[in-house]
Amino acid sequence: MKRVVFTEAEIASRVGELGAAITDAYPDGDLLVLGLLKGSFIFVSDLVRAIRRPLQVDFLVVSSYGNEMVSSGNVRLVYDPETVLAGKHILLVEDIVDTGRTLARVMEILRARGPRSIEVCALLDKHDRSFIPTPPRFLGFDAPSEFLVGYGLDHAENFRHLPYVASLQ
Ligand code: PRP
Hints:
Layout lengths: L2 E4 L1 H18 L5 E7 L3 H8 L7 E8 L12 E4 L9 E9 L3 H11 L5 E9 L12 E5 L5 E2 L15 E3 L2
Parallel strand pairs: 2-3, 2-5, 5-6, 6-7
Antiparallel strand pairs: 1-9, 3-4, 8-9
This protein binds 1-O-pyrophosphono-5-O-phosphono-alpha-D-ribofuranose.
The site of 1-O-pyrophosphono-5-O-phosphono-alpha-D-ribofuranose has 19 residues, from strand 2, strand 5 and helix 3.
């Protein structure tokens, strides 16, 4: 491990701010927070506790990387939420936007289900926008272009449990 990129305290503070911004952004209507597993599992659990309004939580499972350190571009939908999406505000929660391939594909799938709105909340964004038409509406941090692990992010399924974000390179 090379260095800690975002400490536990920095993440907690930023997640609190994101929760407040999301609370203010959705004054009415049903809000469904949809976490992209596995990477978002810690972020979602902290984020929903910082949102002060009624909401529901569900998850999507997609897989794009396998055990490699580079994106394969092969986004597979492994679990589809049973919650009805039509007419609801959908807040899609991602741990990290890298190439944006995953987000682009998932947005396409979700838009077809007639939600009232779809926005993205990402903890980290590497700003390689090649594959996404719009940036996340809610963003935790700009991320360096290094391989990051911790706070849900893995390398070959390891390191997800770290309470901070670190670089492996
Ligand atoms: C990672 C990460 C994002 C995606 C970002 O998921 O959680 O979902 O890659 O990359 P992209 O912007 O280039 O598409 P991964 O497929 O590794 O699965 P995981 O969430 O189970 O770790």
